[in-house]
Amino acid sequence: MTDHFVPYTPDDISMEYHQLLGSFLPQGESDKGPTLCAAESKDPSAWLTILQRSLGLSKRDQSDFVLDFAYGEDMASQMWDTPLLRAIVSKNMENVHLLLEHGANPNGVDCDSQASYARRFRRVKSATVDVRDRIVQISQEDVGDSTTQLLTLSNDELARRTSTISPFWAFPDALPLGYSENGDLLHSVLMAARTTTEILEVILRAGADGSAWTTSQPDELPSEDLLRPSALCVSTPLHAAIDSGNALVLDALPDRGFNSNARALIAGCQALTPLQHAVVHDKPELYQRLAVHPLADSSIVTPVLKVHVLHFAIAQLDLNLIDVIGLPLSAAMPTALGHTLLHVACMPRDESQLQMFAPKVRQSVHDMRTLHVQQQSWPAAIYQLALPRAGQTELPAEDGPADYPTRLPRMNWLPLEERVERSETDRLLGMPAVDDFNRQLAVIQTLVMEPGPAETLKIDIYGNTALHYLASSRIVNDDAVAWLRKQEHGDQVWRTAANRWGWTPSDVWKDNVTTIEPAQESLRYVNTRGGRSRRGIAGTLTRGRR
């Protein structure tokens, strides 16, 4: 019997092609696929084999599914990784060369992915889009154009701040720039800045775009459609080098034409200069290395909120960092919210240290000195009426710290050491340590003694003085309040300086220290006269006012 030749049909060819195409894709949720594995492999034959097999694909499919394949743990998310980025982060120079020679995108990521991620940081957003939802694709219709990023603070934005609490330097709904994996590294040059100068040179010679980081910064951003790939990134190579502690690349970048003041303006109020970024991330040695460059400018303030590098240093209560920066305190003007350096030093560190159960505190204080933005939205609900009802103790006989020597025996105050963190658990819950108070007092003294006592009179856009912020902490730094009250104008401010809601620092303090948090026994300011213990009174009041 003779075998008859049966030719391939179009369907057979299509099936064979799709099987070939499928062989390059991940097989399951935890599988990155053969292209990424080969790109980071130290065996160059692994990537050569991938390339040889991919010759059977069309040029477009070879680009989309092999050379520039974008991988994410959740394919609908923005957690991108590509073969070129993987080869760079693995410091696999041979595979970097192979990818670029065979036509991989030298920028490492396509512009659509960069733009989609950058939209999560727009000031103007549709009320129907949740930029924190990782699986949502953000379109241009969901957010305002990039031209809005550098506009001055609007009245609506100011009003929105009074309904919640925010970092003093960012918006209430701000996302961390690294919200998604590699989100702040969506460019080959950014990834290369974390590795070696040799890899950086190869990427730049291949034609990777760095125009946004090598030219002077504009005062206005053009429309998104006109932005080059580097301008769509929420970070810069200098920031990436600082994050990784890569001093060699940081030194090399300005010499290779990169602007030592480059910022990712697409990130809006989070567009810090490299000098500011080094301070925020507590890298004083890298600040010094960059500051010696003749074009490095420490006077630049952030877009929109106008925050100076000294504000970021003061927020950390670190006088050594102030010395490293080496600028006079007068170099920092008040921010767009009216915050002086003294305001920032006196703010609660974060929401865990704010007495949010006290109505006058909640009404008055809307900023904190933390230098981090949260993965989750700031708890706006804590400023609404849905809070559990708090109890109250009787009003104290005195008017605040510094009164007790004459108006209340010191023995009736719970000692400072008993009101602050006593264990690692307390530290994790956010309660300040005694040392934090000592550092805060030292910074406050420096900020008042150098410019003069008139600093205590200055108010922000809410009408708050520095003493309003000190009075709002769950555990008040009594020594700092007492010291400020003893300065010229200090006691007058404490008793008479009313904010826009009509509350003086003394009013805020009384509301604070007489509040007993729901479902807790207060270990704060409870009078023990009459033979009852602090714990007994607190427990009785808490139970009686549910």
TrEMBL record:
What Pfam families does the record tag this protein with? Ank
Keyword Repeat among record annotations? yes
Q: Which SUPFAM superfamilies match?
A: Ankyrin repeat
Give the UniProt keywords, A-Z: ANK repeat, Repeat
Q: Which residues form the ANK repeats? A: 79-111
Q: Which InterPro entries match?
A: Ankyrin_rpt, Ankyrin_rpt-contain_sf, Multifunctional_regulatory
Descriptive protein name = Ankyrin
